[in-house]
């Protein structure tokens, strides 16, 4: 943990108050508007040293600290992806800050392509596990034995059970599946998608996995939800593009918001 994190935490407390944060939320492509649902203080990433601020279109580069359904949350409106600058640990300052503010858990969200015919654009998928198809790791270079993070239950079983129960309560289908991290920024080829399917992937995307690894390294519980924006390459005639991702993400975002609100209302 660097000194920078203490300075970041002091800055956030000075602007947003001392009350500890319970949960972090990382918003994926096209989901940035969820930050607007939180009553609180928005801090531009540009004010937070070490935070990404160039960003990808469709993201909202602010940290919002405030209440959602009576729970104090830290909403990260944008993430830096590996493909932007080649840094798989780009979200480490954000996750360290979350922990320094008292956070115990983080829920990551993303946009993803589906490899399963029963999970369609506009649907949500809860990550039961992931495959690191990129071969990259945000802990490379970490000098201590803490780097040998067990990943057996990386996607927290209790958090997932609560999210599934909330989805059922609000009438949103939340199938579980395995997310494959592909570095991007080019999309996958149909042959790569066939390979990922054989390897056990249910959805594919360009984020989240490094955040899950970092969260476990830092002792944060973690769960992640994909909003499916398209069928993966070769599985439909629809053209895959970032524009399409941004246009489709709000469909899933509305469902995601209902699930998350219920989940927070019942967080113990
Ligand atoms: N592949 C990778 N990332 C994505 C996709 C996809 O098909 N859709 C949205 N993000």
CATH architecture verdict:
3-Layer(aba) Sandwich
User: What's the structural domain tally?
Assistant: 1
What is the helical fraction, as a range of percent?
Answer: 25-40%
Just give the CATH class.
Answer: Alpha Beta
Q: Which molecules are bound in this entry?
A: hypoxanthine
Q: Distance between termini? A: 28 Å
Tell me the series of helices and strands, N- to C-terminal.
HEEEEHHEEHEHEHEH
- Quantity of strands, as a count: 9
Unreliable stretches covering 5 or more consecutive residues:
none
Task: Supply Rg.
Answer: 17 Å
- Find the CATH topology: Rossmann fold
* Helix and strand composition category: alpha/beta
Name the strands of the widest sheet in spatial order: 5-8-7-6-9
Biggest pleated-sheet summary = 5 strands, mixed, barrel
Count of individual helical segments: 7
Q: What average pLDDT do the residues reach?
A: 93
Identify the overall geometry: globular
> CATH homologous superfamily - what is it?
Nucleoside phosphorylase domain
Strand content: 15-25%
Enzyme class: transferase
Subunit structure: Homotrimer.
Family: Belongs to the PNP/MTAP phosphorylase family.
GO molecular function, one term: purine-nucleoside phosphorylase activity
